Every structure is written in structure tokens, then in C-alpha cells.
Amino acid sequence: MPTVQRRSDVVETHSEHAVMAGIGGLIALAIGIVLYIFRGDGMLLGLAWVLLLGGAGAIAYAIYSAMQVRGVSSYDIVCPYCNAKVSLLAAPERDVSCRTCLRMIPIENGKPIKVTQVRCGYCNALNYYSEKTIGLLCEECNHEIPIARADGQLGQSRFAVVDDDKTYELKLITYEHATEDLISTLQHTLALNRNQVKQMLEELPCTLLTGIPKKKAEMISAQLTRHGAVCQYSPLG
User: pTM for the complete prediction?
Assistant: First the structure.
């Protein structure tokens, strides 16, 4: 099931094409004009025309790409956790990540579903769950929080952590596709820019974090796994 693209990503792509083509076209035109003016005996006349025509074509493409930005459709949903607006190209068919609070927005029939607040019995931190939640871990202390499911059973998570004093190293082994959700999650988790993340994805396996608690390694690994990544964490020493 394909992931619906975010409007901002499509706009960014068209804008990048417009800027790069515009800059390249202007440079080609400038060089072509100089060669045409100082063509001398005509040896550089052919090259001048090639640059002039190529530059004009690049500028035309830049204008076309800029106009494409205005035609990008928008389907807006509101994150039920932080009320941030998420703009997509169409109604989503599966859960979507919120880039503001970094939570997964539960989706049914193209719309977000209601989330319920619950406080952790260990640290009193506020947590959220929806009808789609199978197991809930506290975002602060990582203890299991019992929640009632629609079938009347208590949801259990295999990521519940027993107290562990060791520090761990988290590695990214491979991934299915470099989706926007995967890139965005790595950006926010590692505090890297988009280009750094893309370069990292070309040099696998790689270490994401080191010297972190086991519960943090498990939570990040679980989040990345949802986006098609394969992670591995192991104790240091």
C-alpha cells in the first residue's frame, strides 16, 4: 500500500528543480552571450548558440516547475495529539507520522480517529492511545500501561523493558524503501539534515546511536521498523 506524499515534499521537489534549472539556465545564457559577442572569426558561434538555446530551455523548464507548485493539491488532516496540520496530496490509506510531535496519526477511512489520554501509573506521565493501539508503553519511563481493547482484552507489547543498567549501540542494517516517513524519523531522531540522512542510507550498515539505554534503543528500533527499516541493538562492552 503506497504512502501518500506530503504536499510540502512535492512543493520542495518542484522548487528545487525550478531553482537549479533557473540558475543553470542563467549561467548558460550569460556564457552564450559572452561567446556570441566575442565570437571573433566565428569559431565559437556554434557553441554560443548551443548555450543560448540550452539556457533558454532550462529557464523555460524552471518557469514550468515553478508553476507546478501552484497546482499541487492539498488534503489537510489535523494531528489528534498536538493539533498540528498535516498537508497531504490525497486522503491517506494508512497511519501517517506527524512531524511536529513525531507520533503516528491513526487513520481510518482517510481520516484521523480519536485518541484517548491515559496517565502512567509509574511516573504519572500523560500518554495517548487509540482503538488501533495494541500495546502501550509510557513515553517517559517505558513501562507497560494496560489499556482495554475493543475485544475486551488488555493490550500487551513485546517491547516492554525490564530494568537494565547497560548501555547499548543501535545500528541501521537495511531498509525496504527510503520513504519520506523513514527519512523524517531519522532526521528528528539523529538531529541531521535531509542530505546527511540520504548519505547515511547509502552507507549501510551504520551506527545510529551509541551509549543509550536499552529502552531508548528498543523504542527507536520499533519506530524505524514501522517504516520498513531493519535495526539491531546490542550492549556495549
Answer: 0.52
Domain chopping of the chain, boundaries: 7-70, 75-145, 167-235
Q: Are 141 and 122 in contact (CB under 8 A)?
A: yes
Q: ∠139-143-144 over CA atoms, to 5°?
A: 100
Q: Which residue has the cell 504536499?
A: 7
The cell for 114 is 480519536
Does residue 5 contact residue 180 with C-beta atoms inside 8 Å?
A: yes
Q: What are phi and psi of 7, to 5 degrees?
A: -60, -40
Non-local CB neighbours of 77 within 8 Å, separated by 6+ positions: 85, 86, 88, 92, 96, 105, 107, 111, 112
Longest C-alpha distance within the chain, in Å?
89
Burial of 174 (0-12, 13-18, 19+ CB in 10 A): exposed
User: Residue 216: is it exposed, middle or buried by C-beta count within 10 angstroms (0-12/13-18/19+)?
Assistant: middle
3 state DSSP class of 29: helix
Q: C-alpha angle with apex 177: 158 to 184, nearest 5 degrees?
A: 75
pLDDT tens-digit readout, 28-87: 999 999 988 887 777 778 888 999 999 999 999 999 999 998 888 889 999 999 999 999
Which CATH number does 167-235 carry?
3.30.1390.10
Give the E-state strand segments of 69-182 in sequence order: 75-78, 85-88, 96-97, 104-105, 107-108, 111-112, 116-119, 126-129, 136-137, 144-145, 167-175
